[in-house]
Specification:
4 helices, globular
Length: 163
């Protein structure tokens, strides 16, 4: 199969196009569950996302007055929008059903739990966010996981070398 026809590893569906991932989330948090939700955007934000420009590095979600909001998600201004542009780090409303908010709110309210966006993508033409229910890792947990991953890599290399 040539490189043109290959699907990205994260694409679960043919009509899904990845915009950005929060790579540090897997390192800094234990992801206990995830939920796909829509995101309310302005026109210039959608155009900027279609260009593939966004960052979830410091983003997080909070439940405020019965609604879920995404904070610190950086969607840069769209150059051609001129005076109709948006603030790059404005809070954005996440679109969820009430029962999903209640279920996630109860779990997120526990000590040490937070809502972290894991991926931002287009699915069937609509912008979606994969929101993860996460628990922060301690430094010693991170070191332990890195050691395990390194030993797994060494084992794979040794097996490939023997073939």
């Amino acid at each position: 199969m040539n490189a043109k026809n290959r699907k990205p590893a994260d694409a679960e569906h043919d009509n899904e196009r990845l915009i950005c991932r929060n790579r540090k989330a897997q390192h800094n948090f234990d992801v206990l569950g995830s939920l796909e939700c829509g995101i309310a955007l302005l026109g210039s934000e959608v155009k900027s996302l279609r260009c593939g420009k966004a960052s979830l590095e410091e983003a997080y979600a909070r439940i405020k007055e019965g609604e879920v909001w995404l904070f610190n998600c950086d969607i840069p201004e769209y150059r051609e929008a001129n005076q109709f542009n948006h603030p790059p780090k404005r809070p954005r409303k996440l679109l969820l059903h009430r029962r999903e908010i209640k279920r996630f709110a109860a779990q997120a309210a526990q000590k040490g739990m937070t809502l972290v966006p894991l991926r931002l993508y287009f699915k069937r033409g609509k912008a979606k966010v994969l929101l993860g229910l996460c628990r922060g890792r301690k430094l010693h947990d991170k070191r332990e996981i890195l050691k395990k991953e390194e030993t797994q890599r060494e084992i794979r290399r040794a097996v490939q070398h023997r073939r």
